[in-house]
Amino acid sequence: MAVRKVASEVAGSVWEIQVAVGDQVSADDILIVIESMKMELPVASPFAGTVKAIHVEKGDLVEEGQAVVDLEA
Amino acid sequence: MSTSKPESEADDWSAEIAELRARQAAAREMGGADKVQVQKDKGKWTVRGRIDALLDPGSFREIGSITGMADYGPDGELLAFTPANSVIGRGRVEGRTVVVAGDDFTVRGGASDASIAEKQIQAEQMANELRLPIVRLIDGSGGGGSVKALETSGYTYIPANPGWNWATANLSTVPVVCMGLGPIAGLGALRLVSGHYTMLLRDQGFMFAAGPAIVSALGKPVTKEELGGAAVHARSGAVDDIAEDEADAMAKARQFLSYLPSSVDGLPPRGDTTDPVDRQDAWLDGAVPHDRRKVYDMRKIVRSLVDAGSFMEIGKYWGKASITGLARLDGWPVAIVASDPRIYAGGWTADTADKLNRFIEMAETFHLPVVHLVDIPGVLIGIEAEKSGAIRHAARALASVYQASVPWCSVVLRKAFGVAGASMANHTRFRYRYAWPSGDWGSLPIEGGIEAAYKAQLAAAEDPVAERAMIEAKLNAVRSPFRTAEKFGVEEIIAPRETRPLLCEFANLAAPLRKPGKVGFGFRP
């Protein structure tokens, strides 16, 4: 099973983590919410899979393109 | 008195015609059965297979069908023949004639030492003078071949890009579609990115200024996927799109051309539509959340507003804060620009502004009316945004907006703040504009502006948090878009579900206003 890194499309701060390691997610499920430009911008799951790792904590600053979650298809 | 002989005594040219046919047949073998098999084993189509798939069946009229490199025996007999690795001609796409120029990778890997450069030049010139779209099927290395070529030439030269006067002129004259279908560098890369709609083939198309061997030698090893794969360049904005396979590439090219005139001397052709102009999707009324911190799906809104199935997104993987694409309204082709609130709330990054500039230039070049669905909080703020020079890129996009003369309609879905928000249209033209009740606009968003504007008042307050909340509530009270509409600051607020009928009305009013001919500013890659 391939593990792929899911990155934030935007720079901002981690507003909310909506999944835990081991969770099963469907495509388009919201994994993490990033606060940027005064809005809550979702990092959505690109495919259905299992959350293998979460690389950020609430309040962390993330850069554009930074991997936030590892997802196994 | 006639000098022609009776038919029974006519000169016999059958041997020559047979030789012509034999040479044409030899050229159609491309690089030979072995090389063709290698191409197929890689999962790639041959250049002739591609041309057949792109064009209407049987419509290809080849030009230069026997060009190539021949070896002759002592008595001038043809011993061997290798065709040129560029196949050019004309054919039809949905009945309309286009020029096609394809590289043949089975002949010397598409390298220039097996090409006859004049073929590509003539293809570009033909497109320009006959006012026909051109489709480039690019599958080869560069213009310079390899340094080995020096051994045979015996001299070196100052480089020039062959046919580039025509290729550049074509960008402001005829639609140019480019597909990267193999490993591409140098001149091939230049030809690929210099189009109105460009794509790389997933897992097969690679593009770089210099390939992985050269780049790896300079430092960290890189793969061709990392260096110049479809995902890299669709993200970098070097190309507009990723083709999932060869059939997808041909289908995308045909679809793209369907929205455009054959040249700037024509107008975008009206397509068939069975979608009623008065269709109103009720869910649109609830599409934008009341909570201003929450996002929504702009692509779903776009697909609902335009003729069913007619939206073709261009540049999906870069400049993502704005969605750009072609679509139809009551059959009329239009250019759609729509903010994506999920990416920086729709704020303009440098690459978003670049994408908009390029797209608006294309709309202007080919007389496509523009529909702008606006949700723009401004130019992106922050250190990275400043370092990227976002404001100058935004200024360039804004210049395109203000120079454009094509009919233009804006619909403000939510935010319009600052200079980027003001770029929804050239405000000195008739303001063909609507707003949804979720409209929210101004010089600065209230949320971000209170601290600066009320600094002294907040500092003096006993409870700054409560003071801030009180100020925000006071300001929010005047934030209703109806107050703006009272002053005619926004011309008309509509129920979101009414948007499609109004946009179809716009497209029909705009259609007779479109003017063929060259426009004031040309398209640049």
How would you portray this structure in words?
The complex is a heterodimer of chains A (73) and B (525). Chain A is mostly beta strands. Chain A has a single domain (3-72), classed as RNA polymerase II/Efflux pump adaptor protein, barrel-sandwich hybrid domain (OB fold (Dihydrolipoamide Acetyltransferase, E2P), Beta Barrel), CATH 2.40.50. In chain A, 0% of the residues lie in helices and 55% in strands. Chain A has no helices and eight strands. Chain A has strands at 3-7, 12-17, 24-25, 30-36, 39-44, 49-54, 61-62, 67-72. In chain A, the strands form two sheets. Chain A has a four-stranded antiparallel beta sheet, with no helix packed on it. A four-stranded antiparallel beta sheet of chain A has the order 5-4-2-7, with no helix packed on it. In chain A, a hairpin with a 2-residue loop joins strand 4 and strand 5. Chain B has 525 residues and is of the alpha/beta class. Helix content of chain B is 36%, strand content 18%. Chain B contains 21 helices and 18 strands. In chain B, helix 4 (117-129) links the parallel strand 5 and strand 6. In chain B, helix 13 runs parallel beside helix 15 and helix 17 crosses helix 19 (464-477). Chain B is elongated. The termini of chain B are far apart. The model of chain B has no long low-confidence stretch (mean pLDDT 93). The chains are: A mainly beta (73), B alpha/beta (525). Chain A binds chain B through residues 9-11, 36-42, 63-64, and chain B through 292-295, 320, 341-345, 347, 377, 380-382, 384, 445, 447-448.
Uncertain regions spanning at least 5 consecutive residues of chain A: none
Helix content of chain A: under 10%
Instruction: Please indicate the percent range of residues of chain B in DSSP E strands (runs of 2 or more).
Output: 15-25%
Count of strand segments of chain A: 8
SSE string of chain A, helices as H and strands as E: EEEEEEEE
CATH class of chain A: Mainly Beta
Rg of chain A over CA atoms, rounded to whole Å, is 11 Å
Globally, the shape of chain B reads elongated
Task: Note the total helix count of chain A.
Answer: 0
**Secondary structural class of chain A:** mainly beta
Number of spatially distinct domains of chain A: 1
Provide the spatial order of strands within the biggest beta sheet of chain A.
Answer: 1-8-6-3
Helix content of chain B: 25-40%
How many DSSP H or I helices of chain B? Answer: 21
Intertermini distance of chain A = 6 Å
**CATH third-tier fold name of chain A:** OB fold (Dihydrolipoamide Acetyltransferase, E2P)
Rg of chain B, please?
A: 28 Å
The best one-word shape of chain A is globular
Ranges of chain B with pLDDT <50 over ≥5 residues? Answer: none
Q: Main beta sheet of chain A, described? A: 4 strands, antiparallel
Name given to the CATH architecture of chain A: Beta Barrel
